[in-house]
From TrEMBL:
The keyword Magnesium applies. PANTHER family: CHROMOSOME TRANSMISSION FIDELITY FACTOR 18 (PTHR23389), DNA LIGASE (PTHR23389:SF9). It catalyses: NAD(+) + (deoxyribonucleotide)n-3'-hydroxyl + 5'-phospho-(deoxyribonucleotide)m = (deoxyribonucleotide)n+m + AMP + beta-nicotinamide D-nucleotide. SUPFAM superfamilies: BRCT domain (SSF52113), DNA ligase/mRNA capping enzyme, catalytic domain (SSF56091), Nucleic acid-binding proteins (SSF50249), RuvA domain 2-like (SSF47781). The gene is ligA. This is DNA ligase.
Amino acid sequence: MTPEQAQNEIAELTQKINYYNEKYYQEHISEISDYEFDMLLNKLIDLEKQFPQFTQPDSPTQRVGGGITKEFLTVTHKRPMLSLSNTYNEQDLRDFDERIKKTLGDAPYEYICELKFDGVAMSLHYENYLLTTAVTRGDGEQGDDVTTNIKTIKTVPLKVHSQKLPPNFEVRGEVVMPHESFDRINDEIAKENEQREKEGKKPLAFLANPRNATSGTIKMQDSSVVAKRNLMFYGYDFLADNQAFITHEESLKALKEAKFNISTDYVKCKNIDEVIDFVNRWETKRYDLPMDTDGIVVKINDYSQRETLGFTAKSPRWAIAYKYKAEVASTILESVVYQVGRTGAVTPVANLKPVKLAGTTVKRATLHNANEIARLDLHQGDTVFVQKAGEIIPQITGVDMSKRPQGVAPIHFIENCPECNTQLIRKEGEVAFICPNEKGCPPQIKGKMEHFISRKAMNIDSLGEKTIETFFQAGMIKTVADLYKIKKEDILTLEGFKETSANNILAGIETSKQKPFKNVLFGLGIRFIGETVAEKLANFFKSIENLQKASLEELTTAPEIGEKIAQSLIEYFKDEDNLRLIEELKKAGLQFTMQEEDKPQLSNKLEGKTFLVSGVFANFERDEIKNVIEAHGGRVLSGVSGKLNYLIAGENAGGSKLEKAEKLGVQVISESQFLEMIK
Ligand SMILES: [Zn+2]
């Protein structure tokens, strides 16, 4: 094929496929079979590969995705993307109308009411009728450039044919995930998880709700995955340097003609009563829509009137969003069950008579803690109100007292652990009841192991929750140290484990021995020692021995280590069983000392010296200067004490710190003196 022939053929195929796409996605008409369509598309993909120079800017191959975005560039919006002020009741709408009337005087005005889709706001820019950039709202001033991913959305025109629209313009709208796609993806995850369970891998998390799923999807790196998720775009605003239309309604019609996806469920209202009618009409009707909506947007129709009304600092004065309250259902409380978590905290969960709520069936609701049960004054057999507001787990918001059966007993929080029957305790100042039987309560033991193997700790992903459960039931593991004693023969005696999976599990356990000290420290699951604290402790104390030896006072000199954490460490190391566990893990070969390569080391010029930083610096961010100190072998303390050698004082350094330093004879140095020290 000559280049000229290729060029013609590419142009022809592009036009043809775009035509079929448009017919299908705008008018739901298939003029050719899927097979024929795929043949045309594959032919175009092949030709574009051979002659990339002839690829058309509106090529339908972009819909299939494949482009990878490593990092989403931050883009400043040409016009700020303001958010609308929200209202939840009729009176607010009437007040809004009063304010409009006051400003516009006697002039007649109209409202356009639109459904408020619950997704991710998006700004599309067209230059010479071609889609050039798609930007998320971000903070309203700046957003992320997600063009490659947005191009895969079939309801976003890549090239526009219109006599009414100017060549350069912006369209704003909402990207949403239809319920069908949302359910399908979660079904796929469920299937995938069955497979992963068999392989002893950790399950993938389900998508929480369509809105979160949408925002997660448009920030994915691989656009071919985005393409498969069937997102939709609904346009609702037209903007250009010179407004081409007199009213908003005209712009919507022109966009619709130009093949933008514009919801037809909008109305024009002559007054606020008509607006309120529309709002009420959609309150329940919206649940029949194939995607989530969370309210109605009310906008002034006339652009010149919008200009008269103007903006507040945060939002336009000519529009308002009416938000529907979360749907509430009432149902019968069948029982309250109690779950014991890794830390021993006991959470009450309500089992409910199944009830339909916002399109799904609800059977359970969280009750949070004992205070919540008391606050609700829950009784056996109560009829309760359940609500779902964006979260996955529904909440009980109240009790229908009129339906309480006579003579029923109030529900009291259990006194003993449902798993090991130990009496529960409540620590001062905390709301949760906990089971103190840390070492004998099965869910706590298993929970500790799951924490130990988790990604941010030892990252043994060849082991999963199910495998831990199986090993535990078989009596193979009582503590995490037992993991390192498991032999292949032991695993092979268990039902469902084959040579390959046994090898994988053992390899994962073996590799974990190389995990740095900070991961091990985090993995031990000491109370209040999260990932960041573990890293700080590892950097400061360098080894478990130093940490063990440290007094309460010494512990609190470490950066950002407070009394609560220090106390928890002291308690942990007081316990014989914990010390035995550490010894066993050491013997197994785990890292209990910080390796030099864990942290970049520039020099040892500051070796043995301690520093405190205060104020603002010209050459460093505050955390940066701390890293520099450590990189040169120095240590950073958290307060002025007798152990402190230098206080580096930047601009606006704390007065009380300087005073105390002077009293204790600590040397106060400037930023430039510090720079001299490491030169
Ligand atoms: Zn227990």
